[in-house]
Amino acid sequence: MEKLKIADKEFTSRLFIGTGKYSSNADMAKAIDASGSEMVTVALRRVDIRNENDDMLAAVDRDRCVLLPNTSGARDGEEAVRLARLTRAASGINWVKLEVTPDPYYLLPDGGETLKAAETLVNDGFVVLPYINADPILAKKLQDVGTATVMPLASPIGSNQGLTTRAAIEIIIEQATVPVVVDAGLGLPSHAAEAMEMGADAVLVNTAIATAGDPAAMAEAFKLATEAGRTAYLAGKAAISKTANASSPLTGFLRD
Q1: I need a surface site. Which of 91, 170, 200, 238 has the fewest CB within 10 A?
Q2: Is 151 helix (H, G, I), strand (E, B) or coil?
Q3: Catalytic: 97?
Q4: What digits encode the pLDDT tens for the residues 72-120?
Q5: Domain 8-235 indexed as CATH 3.40.605.10
Q6: CA 155, CA 133: separation in Å to the nearest integer?
Q7: Which of the residues 5, 9, 21, 97 is marked catalytic?
Q8: Side-chain half-sphere of 206: how many Cα atoms within 13 Å?
Q9: Domain ranges in the chain?
Q10: What's a GO biological-process term for it (predicted)?
């Protein structure tokens, strides 16, 4: 499969993994390994990013996976920028998944604050991957200020509802000049395959894997679904018809 390029890095895997909600760090490590993922996001509020011996960080194979800090929990753009800068100062990591979610119930991102924070961080030298509502106008504005990707939500984070925003994501993909990573709400491998078949460049999954009965097995299922969806997209889908079209000739019967 062709590689995905984001900023100056190339990825063989198009499945990104979150690190929250696992019952143990050992389960998380097994799931990451089974997923084949090369991009792992971690909430800055949950770990000591300065300490490579932090229990959670120590479970991530840093030789294989890019660590993508996120600003989960930031309630406005100013707080997200402060978190990103503190992380870079402590770790040297200048990649950030930008999350601004003032709404504690649905955890929907604030588009205006996200745009302001993204522009500040891009100008500050960060590689910014913003988590957003499936808003095509906002997605264009973010790519215009220099974000490395856009990450529209499929449905509310952790809800496992699947692609409830499909129509808007299709527009975002059509207009995108940066990779589109479908994030949040993908509850089944078939949801990931659907996003990839639409032309998404990658998907990010956390809850559906971390809370599965067997996280490693579910991670492998998402890996296979992501690969299948991408392969199907590249193959080119067949046309949809309102009428039947026989796959075998309807002539040559004895009655003819």
Answers
A1: 238
A2: strand
A3: yes
A4: 889 999 999 999 998 888 888 899 999 999 988 888 999 999 999 999 9
A5: no
A6: 9
A7: 97
A8: 20
A9: 8-235
A10: thiamine diphosphate biosynthetic process
